[in-house]
Automatic annotation (TrEMBL):
Official protein name in the record: Tripartite tricarboxylate transporter substrate binding protein
Organism taxonomic ancestry: Bacteria, Pseudomonadati, Pseudomonadota, Betaproteobacteria, Burkholderiales
Keyword Protein biosynthesis: no
PANTHER family named among the record's database cross-references: BLR1237 PROTEIN (PTHR42928:SF5), TRICARBOXYLATE-BINDING PROTEIN (PTHR42928)
Keywords, comma-separated and alphabetical: Signal
InterPro entries: BUG, Bug_dom1, TAT_signal
Organism: Alcaligenes xylosoxydans xylosoxydans (Achromobacter xylosoxidans)
Signal sequence coordinates: 1-29
Similarity comment text for this entry: Belongs to the UPF0065 (bug) family.
Coiled coil: none
Amino acid sequence: MQTPYSLSRRRFLALGAAVAAGATFSARAAQDWPGGKTITWVVPYPAGGSTDVLGRAIAQQLDALLATRVIVDNRPGATGTIGAARVARAEPDGLTLLGTSIGPQAIAPHVLGKLTYDPVADFAPVIMIGTIPHLLVVGKEQPFHTVADLITAAKKAPQSLAYASGGTGTILHMQGELLQQKSGARFLHVPYKGDTPALQDTLAGQVQFAFIPAAAALPHVQTGALRALAATSAQRLPALPQVPTMAEAGFSDFVVEQWQAVFAPAATPAPVIARLNAGIGRALQSPALTALAEQLGITLAGGTPQALDTARRADFDKWGKVIRDAGIKPA
């Protein structure tokens, strides 16, 4: 796979086309866009997950804000890369969008071999939707009450403690790898086919711990079925003020927030990107989206395409280093 900063002849020509398109795409055309044409919002995951639910809610808002129809197209598979590839190949007219999480853009490219797209060069950032903090949790029967307890036990018996993830190359897996590298402990990784079975086996005590999205873990923490040892956010979570952050637990640079964002194909005209950014930004401010985000445990973001570009490049580099240091080779 090409590195995200390489520039093939095809992409060089696409970049030139983007510049030309930006110069000739008039303000009048941008105002008229999408001209009643249907927008396809590709979700690279199955229906029912947070990325899908959030995407459908935004699509419903955009129907009115952009005076057009927005349909959601679920294209799951290969850790989200099948859906991402679909958008990378689409016409750069703003009518095909990728509503995704961090995985296909910043993690999967380092884990999966022979991708058909470049996660940076083939996509134009539109807007950050929001971020999702995670909780480091253990089942109620586990003897660990702090992160230090967990690390101490793992160091005494390397790979005796197992942690669950939603699959190899997912953000849940990467956090376990990051904890190993930061602590010097060694754990046993148990990948599942999705976050839900990973959570279920953590609850059942089949594995000792897991990093779980806060919204999914919170009800079980509140009932006592799970014990939260730390939050991966920069600040303590309002819903769990007694739970320390990973920084407070001794890992000052362990801040992980899974982002959700929107991308368009590379070479999409800048005025179209600006119109999409404004429309989605307004949708994120709606009472309906605010209530849904609270339910899903997502902190809504918004912001400029440039801010999203900075975030995706930083996370691409960050997780690439974690994966290389872990010795994980592309499949």
